[in-house]
């Protein structure tokens, strides 16, 4: 059990470079592995999830070296992966699991995927069903891990996604690379587009139509290894953006944060609520990046619906926290995907926020939160529900509470942000 830091006397101060982007770090290893030549990833995220991806590809016969946050991948090409004698352990990582399913579906060997208790409860049919339409042979355990993939030659597909999910889209793109003819994927809504951007940079041929949701993938590319610097993770920066917006007297600058517009939902929401953020963008050839400076502000309530969800999906627990201090009633809806994350994040947020006396009401697809009600601690022992993002949002909430709070499962931060508590301490000094 970790004792959480409470209300700081003078706010949060200073500059921070947050660790590399989780989504991009995963994809860097995967695309590097199926390319020819060397891929160098600088500012790689060395969190448990990304290390699950790294270890899985080593097991599939890809030489990969890591020194600190620099990773070198010796690509084996699209058809150079080798069968692993043991099951591949996905740990807690949904991104590793779903993307690798797409890649392994078209290989000429079989693989078994296993994961931890949380990952083993998460839905995998959203990937296995469309892959089956491409000719893949995948056996799930009642729609969950363990999953066995018997690699088969794949056919092209014309598929309309049923959920707004970058993981499903990316799995299908990785499968489509191995088909004989071009495939078309149509999303319900645009989701993070890191796979598309990176694949183009590695020499892949895919187009996104003007509608922003129709992607055509050309098969059998010869991908070429690349050198890339991974931007800071917006989803990690988001914890300090929220803290600096809410804790009086703060001023925080977050350096080199990824500003891909499919990921900047929190930035837009915070601005709409009246947040004080200035952005200094930097010229890049790849993913957009910039420095963010955040100060506290009086926040207005907000209504968010389905259209805004994908760009803020991982930051919704933080939106709930901002709403819990806003000057009115906020409504967050269309976010039912939160129920199938590392834990049911709607239920976890409601349970834990109620311990702080926050006026939050559970909805099937979100929350209603009245920020005008003063908080009062009803239970000082908070629980991360074995979910890194719940653990971190509760640690930020503790900065707004006078009395001491404890956190069960604080170790979960290792999944996406192992240095989270150290970085928070730096800003509190
Ligand atoms: C991710 C996509 C999102 C997100 C996850 C990372 C990715 O999941 O929540 O943390 O890297 O593609 P879904 O695709 O399930 O929405």
Automatic annotation (TrEMBL):
<comment type="function">
    <text>Catalyzes the transfer of the enolpyruvyl moiety of phosphoenolpyruvate (PEP) to the 5-hydroxyl of shikimate-3-phosphate (S3P) to produce enolpyruvyl shikimate-3-phosphate and inorganic phosphate.</text>
</comment>
<protein>
    <recommendedName>
        <fullName>3-phosphoshikimate 1-carboxyvinyltransferase</fullName>
        <ecNumber>2.5.1.19</ecNumber>
    </recommendedName>
</protein>
<feature type="binding site">
    <location>
        <position position="22"/>
    </location>
    <ligand>
        <name>3-phosphoshikimate</name>
    </ligand>
</feature>
<dbReference type="GO" id="GO:0008652">
    <property type="term" value="P:amino acid biosynthetic process"/>
</dbReference>
<feature type="binding site">
    <location>
        <position position="314"/>
    </location>
    <ligand>
        <name>3-phosphoshikimate</name>
    </ligand>
</feature>
<feature type="binding site">
    <location>
        <position position="94"/>
    </location>
    <ligand>
        <name>phosphoenolpyruvate</name>
    </ligand>
</feature>
<feature type="binding site">
    <location>
        <position position="167"/>
    </location>
    <ligand>
        <name>3-phosphoshikimate</name>
    </ligand>
</feature>
<keyword id="KW-0963">Cytoplasm</keyword>
<keyword id="KW-0808">Transferase</keyword>
<feature type="binding site">
    <location>
        <position position="389"/>
    </location>
    <ligand>
        <name>phosphoenolpyruvate</name>
    </ligand>
</feature>
<comment type="subunit">
    <text>Monomer.</text>
</comment>
<dbReference type="InterPro" id="IPR023193">
    <property type="entry name" value="EPSP_synthase_CS"/>
</dbReference>
<feature type="binding site">
    <location>
        <position position="165"/>
    </location>
    <ligand>
        <name>3-phosphoshikimate</name>
    </ligand>
</feature>
<keyword id="KW-0028">Amino-acid biosynthesis</keyword>
<dbReference type="InterPro" id="IPR036968">
    <property type="entry name" value="Enolpyruvate_Tfrase_sf"/>
</dbReference>
<comment type="similarity">
    <text>Belongs to the EPSP synthase family.</text>
</comment>
<dbReference type="GO" id="GO:0009423">
    <property type="term" value="P:chorismate biosynthetic process"/>
</dbReference>
<feature type="binding site">
    <location>
        <position position="345"/>
    </location>
    <ligand>
        <name>phosphoenolpyruvate</name>
    </ligand>
</feature>
<dbReference type="InterPro" id="IPR013792">
    <property type="entry name" value="RNA3'P_cycl/enolpyr_Trfase_a/b"/>
</dbReference>
<feature type="binding site">
    <location>
        <position position="23"/>
    </location>
    <ligand>
        <name>3-phosphoshikimate</name>
    </ligand>
</feature>
<dbReference type="Pfam" id="PF00275">
    <property type="entry name" value="EPSP_synthase"/>
</dbReference>
<dbReference type="GO" id="GO:0003866">
    <property type="term" value="F:3-phosphoshikimate 1-carboxyvinyltransferase activity"/>
</dbReference>
<feature type="domain" description="Enolpyruvate transferase">
    <location>
        <begin position="11"/>
        <end position="424"/>
    </location>
</feature>
<feature type="binding site">
    <location>
        <position position="341"/>
    </location>
    <ligand>
        <name>3-phosphoshikimate</name>
    </ligand>
</feature>
<keyword id="KW-0057">Aromatic amino acid biosynthesis</keyword>
<feature type="binding site">
    <location>
        <position position="167"/>
    </location>
    <ligand>
        <name>phosphoenolpyruvate</name>
    </ligand>
</feature>
<dbReference type="GO" id="GO:0005737">
    <property type="term" value="C:cytoplasm"/>
</dbReference>
<feature type="active site" description="Proton acceptor">
    <location>
        <position position="314"/>
    </location>
</feature>
<feature type="binding site">
    <location>
        <position position="27"/>
    </location>
    <ligand>
        <name>3-phosphoshikimate</name>
    </ligand>
</feature>
<feature type="binding site">
    <location>
        <position position="122"/>
    </location>
    <ligand>
        <name>phosphoenolpyruvate</name>
    </ligand>
</feature>
<feature type="binding site">
    <location>
        <position position="22"/>
    </location>
    <ligand>
        <name>phosphoenolpyruvate</name>
    </ligand>
</feature>
<dbReference type="InterPro" id="IPR001986">
    <property type="entry name" value="Enolpyruvate_Tfrase_dom"/>
</dbReference>
<dbReference type="InterPro" id="IPR006264">
    <property type="entry name" value="EPSP_synthase"/>
</dbReference>
<dbReference type="GO" id="GO:0009073">
    <property type="term" value="P:aromatic amino acid family biosynthetic process"/>
</dbReference>
<comment type="pathway">
    <text>Metabolic intermediate biosynthesis; chorismate biosynthesis; chorismate from D-erythrose 4-phosphate and phosphoenolpyruvate: step 6/7.</text>
</comment>
């Amino acid at each position: 059990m970790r004792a959480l830091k409470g209300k700081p006397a003078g706010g949060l101060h200073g500059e921070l470079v947050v660790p590399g982007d989780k989504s991009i770090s995963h994809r860097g290893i995967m695309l590097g592995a199926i390319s020819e030549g060397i891929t160098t990833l600088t500012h790689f995220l060395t969190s448990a999830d990304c290390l699950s991806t790294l270890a899985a590809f080593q097991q599939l016969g890809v030489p990969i070296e890591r020194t600190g946050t620099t990773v070198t991948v010796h690509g084996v090409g699209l058809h150079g992966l080798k069968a692993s004698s043991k099951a591949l352990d996905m740990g807690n990582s949904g991104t590793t699991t779903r993307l690798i399913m797409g890649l392994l579906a078209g290989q000429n060997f079989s693989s078994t995927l296993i994961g931890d208790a949380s990952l083993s409860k998460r839905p995998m049919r959203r990937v296995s069903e469309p892959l089956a339409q491409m000719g893949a042979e995948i056996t799930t355990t009642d729609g969950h891990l363990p999953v066995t993939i018997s690699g088969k030659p794949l056919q092209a597909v014309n598929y309309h996604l049923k959920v707004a999910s970058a993981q499903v889209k990316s799995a299908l793109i990785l499968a489509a690379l191995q088909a004989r003819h071009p495939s078309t994927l149509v999303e319900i809504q645009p989701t993070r587009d890191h796979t598309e951007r990176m694949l183009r940079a590695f020499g892949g041929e895919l187009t996104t139509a003007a509608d922003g949701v129709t992607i055509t993938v050309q098969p059998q590319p010869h991908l070429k290894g690349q050198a890339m610097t991974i931007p800071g993770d917006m989803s990690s920066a988001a914890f300090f953006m929220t803290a600096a917006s809410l804790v009086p007297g703060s001023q925080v600058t977050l350096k080199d944060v990824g500003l891909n517009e499919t990921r900047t939902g929190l930035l837009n929401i915070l601005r709409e609520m009246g947040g004080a953020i200035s952005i200094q963008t930097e010229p890049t050839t790849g993913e957009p990046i910039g420095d963010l400076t955040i100060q506290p502000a009086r926040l207005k309530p907000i209504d968010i619906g389905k259209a805004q969800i994908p760009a803020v999906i991982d930051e919704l627990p933080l939106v709930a926290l901002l709403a819990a201090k806003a000057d009115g009633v906020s409504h967050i809806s269309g976010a039912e995907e939160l129920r199938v994350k590392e834990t049911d994040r709607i239920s976890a947020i409601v349970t834990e926020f109620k311990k702080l006396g926050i006026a939050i009401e559970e909805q099937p697809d979100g929350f209603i939160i009245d920020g005008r009600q003063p908080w009062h601690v009803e239970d000082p022992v908070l629980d991360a529900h074995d979910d890194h993002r719940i653990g971190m949002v509760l640690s930020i909430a503790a900065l707004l509470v006078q009395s001491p709070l404890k956190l069960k499962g604080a170790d979960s931060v290792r999944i996406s942000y192992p240095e989270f508590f150290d970085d928070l301490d730096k800003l509190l000094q």
